[in-house]
Amino acid sequence: MAEMQPIRIAFFTLLLFLVGCGDPVKEQILQQTPITEQRVQQLAASLEADQVRNASLIKQYANKVGEIKPELQSLIDEFKKDATPQGPLYLSLVDRLNTVTTQPQMFESSQAVYDELLNIYQAADPVLFSDALSDPLNVLADMSDGMLPRVNSLSKSQSQQANNAQDFGTGEQLIGNPSYGQWQTGSNGMSFWAWYGMYSMMGDLFGSRRTYYGDWSQRRNYSYYNDYGRTRYSSPSQLKKQTQLDTRTKKSFASRGQKFQSPYSKNRAGGSSLSGKSKSAQTSANRFRSNTVKKSNFASKSTYSKNASFRNSSSNTSRGFRRGK
Q: Sorting pLDDT into bands at 50, 70 and 90, what band is 272?
C-alpha cells in the first residue's frame, strides 16, 4: 500500500478542504479511512500468524487432500492461498479499499464512500472473515470424498435435501462469488459461470457441466457467500451487476412465459455454528433483497446504505472493484 501514499495524501488534502466547507459525511470519511486501513492490515497479520480459525483449517485440509489425491495438487495449492493475504477473498478487500482511496469519484456520493469504508472494516473482522472462508474450506472437504467433514455447514446431502437443490458439482459453494469467477453471456443469450484461472480446473477434473444462471438461480444449494456474506464481501459495482443480471434473466423468462426465482429471493438452509456477526450480515442481505433494482451510476445510494446498516452490530463472532487476474 506504500506506493499509494502520494495519491492518498492528495485524497486527504481534498477531503480536508471539503470538510472545511462543512460536509459532515466527508469528515466521517476522513476519520474512518485510516481505521479501515488498519483493520485490513491487521487481518493480514492475523492470517500470517495463523490466528484465523478457518484459514488454519484450510491449510490442514489442503495438506490432507494433497496426501490422498496428489493429482489435485495444483488446485489444492490455489485454495491454500485463501489462508493467506494472497488469497482472492483478502485481495478483494484490498482492491475495494484502493478504489475508495484512489478513485472516490467512482461512487455516486460521499455517503456511498463512507458506507463502503464501513463495509470493508466489518468484512476484515477476523472472526467474520473466518466464517467467509468456510466456502473454500468446504470445497476442500468435498474434494476429500467425505474423509474430511464440512465446517459451519450441513453435509452436502443434508443441505441438498433441505433445499431441494441440484448438484452443481464440486466447488458449487463458490459459484456466484466474484472472487472466484464471473457470469458470462454466451451467443445464445444465456449466462453461465466462468471460473477464474486455476479454478477452472474444477470443471476439468470433476467433470462438472456448464452452470447456467437460470438453472442455478432456481436450484442452488447453500453457500456462505450467497446466503450470508454477499452484501459485505462484494463491491458496490459487483452488487449492481448481480442485480442487473437478475433483472435481465427475469425478463427473459417472462418473455417465454416462464416464472423466474431470483437466487437471492430466499436464504437456503445449511449454515451451522456461524457467528453472530454473520447472522447480522444475513439480516442485512434480507434488507438488500427488498431494495434491489435501484438505478445509479455506481450503486444505488438507498440500496448500498442499507447494505451498511449491519455495520454497527455488537454481536460477536465468525472481489472487489477489479479482479486482478
A: confident
CA distances 129 to 105, 135, 176, 287, Å, are: 28, 11, 18, 21
CA 98 to CA 314: how far, in whole Å?
27
Beta partners for 184? Answer: 192
pTM, full prediction: 0.81
Q: How far apart are CA 82 and CA 58, in angstroms?
A: 8
Q: Please give the grid coordinates belonging to residue 58.
A: 484450510
Concatenated DSSP letters for 50-67? T-SHHHHHHHHHHHHHHH
Radius of gyration from C-alpha coordinates of the chain: 20
Q: pLDDT at residue 315 above 80?
A: no
Backbone angles phi, psi at 194, to 5 degrees: -120, 120
Q: What angle do CA 59, 168, 157 make, to 5 degrees?
A: 75
Distances (CA, A) of 239 to 12, 102, 105, 175, 183: 27, 20, 18, 15, 13
Query: What CA–CA distances, in Å, run from 205 to 159, 198, 208?
Result: 24, 11, 8
What torsion do the CA atoms of 22, 24, 28, 29 make, to the nearest 10 degrees? -60
C-beta neighbour count of 208 within 10 angstroms: 18
- Nearest one of 94, 73, 102 to 9, comparing CA atoms: 102
